[in-house]
Amino acid sequence: MSLWTSAQAVAATGGVAQGSWAVDGISIDTRTIEAGDLFVALKDVRDGHDFVAAALEAGAGAAMVSRVPDAVPSDAPLLIVDDVLAALERLAVAARARTNAKVVGITGSVGKTSTKEMLRDVLSAQGRTHASVASYNNHWGVPLTLARMPADTQFAVIEMGMNHPGEIAPLSKLTRPHVAMVTTVAPAHLEAFENIEGIAREKASIIDGLLAGGVAVLNADIATSEILQNHALKSGCEMRLFGEMSSAYQLRSARVLNDLTIVEARIEIDTGTEDILFKVMSAGTHFAMNALGALAVVDALGGDLGRAAIDMARWQPPAGRGMRERIVLDVVDTDAVIDLIDDAYNANPASLAAALAVLSSAEPQDNLGRVSSGRRIAILGDMLELGSDEMAIHASVAQDPNLAAVSKVHCVGPRMKALYDALGAPQRGRWYETAQELAAEVSHIVDAGDVVLVKGSLGSRVTQVVDALRKLGQSTTSTT
After folding, report:
1. 109 is in an annotated binding site
2. Residue 110 annotated as part of some ligand binding site
């Protein structure tokens, strides 16, 4: 069954179809378009209309446009609309209306993508599941995700992000979730908010889109939890809290054993409480919290909580989000390895602290390389959008207690220069203006036996360092 026929798309958007067609997917990027996709000509850095001809040549089943580009044949399969983004939103509304799926909306300063992926994995074992791709969580990412949702979806997991006030509520109202989750609230995007309380109020507005009888799943442990809970109380929705401070979904312990985390939790049930034990195949207490919140969501959806707890052991973080890899440096001497923690997609003070905690618990290997003792090495890029106090925030990382276990800290970017200057001589590694410069030198600053964390905001481009590390040898996903 097709995702959209031309008649359905016309009914949903109010546009005019050129030709009769059907599409199986939706794309906004000719680099990843698949045969049979509807190409949506959004305007961003570039005008998507400039790529319509290329999309059709690549096999697109049709294109949604607000004008017919000059290079497009007169008989091309098109959906002509007044405004492409507005029409995509109308397509999203129609997709949401035609499905009986149980829908989850997720937001949070840290952990929303990882938690979304956890839910994708565990819910996929319980029904046909649709979820946001990558971090498609903004004003076009959310409608695109909804518009891509097949009519027979049983569970949908929609991630929602923001950079400025007033962005979350419209996305939630478009999504109309049965369950809304806030993973945590942390100092991120401070350039656009006066304080962390403002961020909490913005995150809490995901509750505004809940369907009648919906459930808010909220972090009980954060300082701004009361703001989240008050918003839920005013909305009249059911509220379920998770964390060490919660009695409903209480985190009892999280033990990190190299590449995995063993989680003990106590959950309220109709007859009292039940203790559960489950594993997350990734190191970090923050992953334990995200997993517990995800289980609370599954329970709120009426899913099989016990099965979800077992299936959580299959989940591993995606690339750039804390994924653990092993780089084999020598095809002959396969013991000559570097363990890489790829956390290079995003960074703020809370996520950096969590990443340093993971690094501090990792076990290097001795007597493998030029340096007899294996080391824990942190390669840290700038954290962006932190506002006027950004230099002081970067410098304060030097006080993180987990840094005591780190042998060397190499810094990238003008903001991380503040941390570099604050570090003591034994730990202070090298500072580079750009990630490209560090990437060119990476073979000189790591050695066999090392565990290497790469962390930074996407704009710091430390993904280039991750790529350079992978090119030192053969990369494999680390397993326990």
Report:
1. yes
2. yes
- CATH classification number, 99-314, choose in 2.60.120.200, 3.40.50.2020, 3.40.1190.10, 3.40.50.460: 3.40.1190.10
Q: Looking at residues 151-177, what average pLDDT do you find?
A: 96
| Residue 114 assigned to a binding site | yes
Other beta carbons within 10 angstroms of residue 44's beta carbon come to 9
User: Is 124 flagged in the annotation as binding?
Assistant: no
- In degrees and rounded to multiples of 5, residue 16 shows phi and psi of -120, 125
Band (pLDDT 50/70/90 cuts) for residue 308 is: very high
Judged against a pLDDT cut of 90, whether residue 36 lies above it is answered with yes
- Was 203 annotated as part of a binding site? no
Residue-wise DSSP of 39-95:
EE--BSSSBGGGGHHHHHHTT-SEEEESS--TTS-TT--EEE-S-HHHHHHHHHHHH
**Residue (of 226, 224, 239, 209) closest to 104 by Cα position:** 209
Check the annotation: does 108 bind a ligand: yes
* Inter-residue contact 69 to 52 (CB < 8 Å): yes
Q: Output the pTM of the full model.
A: 0.84
Question: At residue 478, does pLDDT exceed 60?
Answer: no
- Which CATH class, in words, describes the domain spanning 4-83? alpha beta
Q: Is the dihedral of CA 140, 141, 142, 143 positive or negative?
A: positive
Band of residue 480 on the pLDDT scale cut at 50, 70, 90? very low
Vertex 385: Cα angle to 383 and 389 (nearest 5): 85
